[in-house]
Amino acid sequence: MNTPAFEPARIECVRGIPVILIAGRLDTTSAPLFDAQAAALLAEARHRILLDFSGLSFISSAGLCSIMRIAKSASVSGGRAGIFAVPAHILELILISGFQPMLDIYPDRETALNGSPA
In sequence order, what DSSP letters do the residues of 50-104 get, joined into one string? Predict the structure, then answer.
């Protein structure tokens, strides 16, 4: 029996908004697969894209680049990308890296879906 391939993310649509749930590590190993998963979504013009970081345990510079690709894609479509349920150590990295202006940061899923940044 074949073992299913590891997928760093799952994409679902909630209230017409794509939500990308990221699990585990987003690093040099998993970022290319994550980018491939997100490619179809980014091929469509999306005004809003949300990323659920509740299952994210680690993010490297490669993972941050993947997130910035999503933010830029939403921006090109005249919208914004948002992240929510961000673990404190990852939020600190995002803030130190200077990515905060490119992302809306929400405390939880409901707030993110309602579009009210923290």
Answer: EEEEEEEEEE-HHHHHHHHHHHHHHHHTT-EEEEES--HHHHHHHHHHT-GGGEE
